Amino acid sequence: MENWEYKTVKYQTGGFLGGKVDEEEFENLLNEYGMKGWELVSCFDTNAGQGHSRDVIAVFKRKA
Predict the structure, then answer these.
(1) Distances in Å between the alpha carbon of 59 and those of 2, 17, 44, 55?
(2) Residue 31 DSSP code
(3) Angle at 21 between CA 43 and CA 48, to 5 degrees
(4) 33 — phi, psi (to 5°)?
(5) Strand order in the sheet with 39-49
(6) Termini Cα distance of the chain
(7) CB burial class (10 A; 0-12, 13-18, 19+) of residue 14?
(8) CA 56/CA 50 separation, integer angstroms
(9) Which of 6, 13, 5 has the alpha carbon at shortest distance from 46?
(10) Cβ-contact 20, 64 below 8 angstroms
(11) Half-sphere exposure of 17 toward its Cβ, with a 13 Å CA cutoff?
């Protein structure tokens, strides 16, 4: 049976009311974890209200 370990990373959005993602910065973050053997399995945002995102949560896994 394979064993997995998981990592959750919080990426804070920018902008006056939040919700703005620096795509290049976020992509660099994902690539950084990918180079360390982490595979992205889920990505979602947390709601700050009025349709604005507060944070983006990325969930990774890799073999333990």
Answers:
(1) 18, 24, 9, 13
(2) H
(3) 75
(4) -70, -35
(5) 4-12, 52-63, 39-49
(6) 11
(7) exposed
(8) 16
(9) 13
(10) no
(11) 6
- pLDDT level of residue 22 (50, 70, 90 thresholds): very high
Reduced 3-state DSSP string for 6-30: EEEEEEECECCCCCECCHHHHHHHH
Which tokens go with 44? Answer: 């979602």
| Amino acid (one-letter) located at 36 | K
* Beta-carbon count within 10 A of 33 CB: 16
pLDDT by residue (tens digit) across 27-52?
A: 999 999 999 999 999 999 988 777 77
Structure tokens at 64: 């333990």
E strand or H helix at 5: strand 4-12
pTM above 0.70, yes or no: yes
